[in-house]
Write a structure and sequence with these properties.
The chain is of the alpha+beta class. It has three domains: 1-47, no CATH class; 147-266 and 362-436, no CATH class; 270-359, no CATH class. The chain contains eleven helices and 26 strands. Strands 14, 15, 16, 17, 18, 19, 20 and 21 form an eight-stranded antiparallel sheet that branches. Strand 19 and strand 20 (341-344) form a beta hairpin.
Length: 437
């Protein structure tokens, strides 16, 4: 994307001046005094989301209406408390009336109050969100904030949400899908896969993510991408939000009918070592593998790496396992040693063959994935990212959050650090993204 800042500044000047050259000149001067120099932006200038947000707020101050076609996807963030945080989001959104609002908030917030204020600020929108283990906006990695994406009518024709409750007890997703069918007035099987896409936000501590995603895959061929709500790093409680309510032990399903295209990105920074392990005995309810290759899981994993079993846990981060599908790893990350077994962050079923993986470079791998998206047909209108908390922790420890953020420079983007990522199934140490075209 490029040139949108210039076009919007021109629109502000034209509306205020109404053909009066003196008012046009003073409007430009006022923009400069507010920190935006119109002369600094041309048709090829990148559309920096931070500057975009500043210009939208200036438009509100000037009483200028910016159409949703001018800002089809906008982003905003705030670190202020409720209700000031929502006033911040509203100002950064400008005068647009989004069809959908997707927000991610630190559990430091009073989430019911935040949800209520956002619902009141955008009464005509489909609004969903969840708690986080860190927030992302415009490529900046934050904590203790709320971030939001506003999807206007230039991108979204229709949006609806449905909630699956009590997911840990085995509740089926079909009732929620029937609600979406009623809202879209059509069976899901008749919807165009090129213009309809789903988001899924799940309770990150439910332990039911695999089953929810499996049931979604059984019930529809529509693509759903998303992640599991976080709770900072405390692993105590996580929440999902929809329809003005807060839920635990639940999954929120969002269905979007898009005017433009979309892509789904799944990227992880690992490659196979050439070693494989077969799960020969598991306790699936605990996400525990008891045996690999008919040996105690800890011993078999350590032998594959050429180390002693006592050293195995120190290698979990750099050497997870991957369920290989067409050469692409769907990562299962070891969590903790349990006797001679290993508990994972994702289920492993008995009989699964998994590749032992080794870490590569998160920044370079993600940069390559985004560059490929930039080179694909159609401009990128925006990105929602679901980033594993383990990836976020690694970037923080390595001091590379700034490098990671720079990958998304000039792209309207929000996301959060998750307790697991969703695409076709439940995965770990991965970034899943929905890219709006």
């Amino acid at each position: 994307m490029a040139g949108q800042i210039k076009r919007t500044i021109d629109s502000i000047v034209e509306q205020r001046a109404n053909g009066n050259p003196t008012i046009a000149l003073t409007t430009k001067a006022k923009l400069v005094l507010k920190g935006v120099n119109p002369g600094s932006f041309g048709e090829t200038s990148p559309d920096d989301p931070v500057i975009m947000a500043k210009i939208r707020k200036i438009a509100v101050d000037f009483g200028v209406q910016l159409g949703s076609d001018e800002w089809p996807v906008t982003t905003a963030f705030s670190t202020k408390p409720v209700p000031d945080a929502v006033h911040d989001l509203r100002a950064q959104c400008g005068n647009s009336k989004p069809r959908a609002v997707i927000f991610f908030a630190s559990p430091q917030y009073d989430l019911p109050a935040l949800n209520r204020e956002i619902s009141q600020a955008f009464p005509e929108a489909c609004i969903v969100g969840c708690s986080t283990a860190g927030e992302i906006v415009g490529g900046a990695m934050l904590s203790g904030s709320v971030v939001a994406m506003f999807l206007g009518e230039g991108v979204v024709e229709h949006a609806a949400a449905a909630v699956v409750e009590d997911i840990s007890s085995g509740t089926c997703v079909r009732d929620a899908l029937l609600k979406l069918e009623r809202d879209f007035q059509a069976p899901l099987s008749t919807l165009d896969l090129r213009s309809h896409v789903g988001l899924v936000l799940l309770d990150g501590l439910s332990g039911a993510q695999e089953r929810v995603m499996e049931e979604l895959g059984d019930a529809t061929d529509l693509f759903f991408v998303g992640g599991s709500a976080g709770g900072d790093t405390k692993l105590e409680t996580t929440d999902v939000l929809a329809n003005g309510r807060l839920y635990t032990d639940a999954a929120v399903l969002v269905l979007l009918r898009l005017k433009t295209g979309f892509d789904i990105v799944k990227t992880q920074s690992f490659k196979p070592t050439g070693k494989t392990l077969v799960a020969t005995k598991v306790e699936e309810t605990q996400r525990e593998v008891i045996e690999f290759n008919r040996r105690p899981a800890l011993n078999a994993y350590a032998a594959a790496l050429g180390i002693e079993p006592e050293q195995a846990s120190s290698q979990f981060f750099r050497h997870p396992l991957g369920l290989m599908i067409e050469g692409d790893p769907f990562v299962r990350s070891p969590r903790v040693v349990a006797g001679r077994g290993i508990r994972f962050y994702s289920h492993i079923k008995e009989g699964m063959e998994l590749a032992v993986l080794e870490a590569t470079d998160i920044v370079e791998d993600t940069r390559a994935a985004i560059e490929a998206q930039k080179a694909a047909p159609g401009q990128i209108q925006g990105i929602i990212e679901f980033q594993c908390i383990l990836r976020t922790q690694q970037l923080r420890e390595e001091g590379r959050c700034g490098q990671y953020g720079a990958i998304f420079s000039g792209i309207p983007m929000v996301g959060f650090s998750t307790y697991g990522e969703a695409y076709l199934g439940h995965v770990n140490q991965t970034s899943t993204m929905l890219v709006f075209r």
